[in-house]
Predict the 3D structure of the following.
Amino acid sequence: MSKDRRTPVVPLEAGAGPENPPCPACGEPLFGWIDARPGLAGPVSRCESCGLGAVGGPRSAEAALRELDRLAVAGRLRIVNRGGLSASIGGAGWAGLEPGARYLFTVEAVRRLVARRDQVVKNVRWSPGAGIATIWQTLLNSATFGHNVAVGSSVRAEKAWQRRIDWLTVAVLAIPAFLVALPLELVGAALRRSSAVSLDLELL
């Protein structure tokens, strides 16, 4: 008689504890993702359920909603998608890790958060310009000392010679990186993992 060798499924709740506080969007534990880096408010955690990223602490649904509201333009939310292909490729070099960011949103995390105030996500649209720029800058970040040098919201390299090399790198690699970024973002959009999206919200 054969034995059942299937690996037991461990629920996410089993990881809850002081080092893994609850996600402000869905309540599941947050797990470590990226160590503290220059320009960030602290280490970055992520939720394995809804995908929300949280930078430093403390964390609350109310604070996440306030930051989400600051991303609204003409009644539409525009987010750099932590669930996008560029975030998976970039890791700590992902262009969405901008100075001052406290929450890194996904479409699912937005759905969970806005449901707290009786809203639903009505439409999700790919933002091609922002998406291509995000994955383009993410690719450049892999070759520079600083972070997000090309888009202006950079964490500058510490030394002057490093900053000079960063600008030279951007000048040399800008076009090749774009030629790689464009098809990658098209693939991400086809897989519903685009790097930037806009969302329309509606009251229930």
Observations:
- The helical segments are 61-69, 85-90, 107-114, 128-141, 160-190.
